[in-house]
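User: I'll paste a sequence; please echo it back and then give the predicted structure.

Assistant: Echoing your sequence first, then the prediction.
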Amino acid sequence: MPGVPHNAATQWFGPDFQRLHPLLQALHRDGGTLAGEIDIRTGPGLAGALGRRLARRLGIPLDRPRRGFRVDIVHESARMVWLRRFDDGSELRSVFEPVGRYPNGHWLESTGPVRMRLGVDLDSGGWHWRLLGIDARGLPLPRFLFPRTDAYKRIERGTEGERYRFAVAFSLFPFGELLRYEGALQAIPAATALSADPAGAAHAAAHSSAERVIT
């Protein structure tokens, strides 16, 4: 891809990087900051109890079903780093390292002591994660013992322009869905992102309908 800076994402996808929506290409070529409001919910009954336990381990706050959220995305030559920040100060940091190449390769996402092996499916310009395996502190775990992860990111067009839509859900047989958080985010200009907290960034995103997901 002449003229495209090489980082972990562009190199892993190779020519198929062009199959991503142009705004997702920009996000995964240059990085950036996205913010807005997200919905967080857990399942009913025992599924909810398991979901709340999982949320505590991940650092996801559950005291309100809707709250401000910000994610800072940094791309490097050998990895990408995602720092998710909730408006109560909670943080969730993940490091993604590529293995092989698309479509047969995968990513290793490390979040604390847990590492997931994730494949990627491309669909209509969007990016869908597919869980392939998991280990904790280097020890492989049977997949049936860990919640199934369903996560995607895509670009959607609405009344406020194009936004970055994402969802992350965890489910476990036979209980069903345990935990889900999702939302539609907008880009935050670099000058604003340097000083904005998640609540302020969410406010700025809600009032900048002319902003594209990547400027």
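Confidence is low (pLDDT under 50) at residues 202-215. The two ends are 21 Å apart (CA to CA).
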